[in-house]
Design brief:
The chain is mainly beta and 155 residues long. The protein has one domain (11-144). The chain is built from one helix and nine strands; from the N terminus they run E-E-H-E-E-E-E-E-E-E. Strands 1, 2, 3, 4, 5, 6, 7, 8 and 9 form a nine-stranded mixed beta sheet that branches. Strand 1 (11-15) and strand 2 (18-22) form a beta hairpin. The longest helix has 14 residues, at 29-42. The radius of gyration is 17 Å and the shape is flat.
Length: 155
């Protein structure tokens, strides 16, 4: 089974009129169970890749975090889920969200299989779904290169 990389994104978020990729996933157990139940009811095949079978759309408005929709990927189809509401206020969420502003990758000398990811991040802190703090930071992560990045072509 594959494991998400440190720069794996889990969907989009709109903040101050701009769309960002989100590195965090602020779902609660109840929403996850609803997604699982929906997939079961619709006969949607479950993937062993934990980040690739659904994507989340979020928005921060008036310093409040909202889950707008969930898109499930099945074969060539995109299936949106709304749970009978246009959006859900994420009052369950207390913690930090990381929004990807930009990403740069560099080779690491003498480490053929590794790369250095330098990510500019907007870190947002929430308490009960309400934004309480914002700061920008730089994250440096050493990640493993994919076979394609190493020059292998399987086409």
């Amino acid at each position: 089974m594959s494991v998400p990389m440190p720069d794996t994104t889990f969907g989009d978020i709109i903040y101050k009129g701009k769309k960002y990729r989100i590195l965090s996933n602020p779902l609660n157990k109840k929403i996850r169970e609803k997604v699982t139940q929906y997939k079961r009811e619709k006969g949607i095949i479950f993937s062993s890749e934990p980040w690739s079978s659904e994507e989340y759309s979020w928005e921060i408005r008036e310093n409040r975090l909202y889950l707008k929709k969930i898109i499930i990927f099945q074969s060539q189809n995109l299936i949106p889920i709304f749970f009978n509401k246009e959006e859900i206020f994420a009052k369950w969420y207390s913690g930090n969200l990381e929004l990807l502003i930009e990403k740069e990758q560099r080779d690491i000398p003498n480490k053929r299989r590794s790369k250095l990811l330098i990510m500019k991040i907007k870190a947002l802190s929430f308490k009960n779904g309400i934004l309480i703090k914002e700061k920008e930071l730089i994250k440096k992560v050493i990640a493993r290169k994919s076979l394609k990045e190493l020059g292998y072509n399987f086409d």
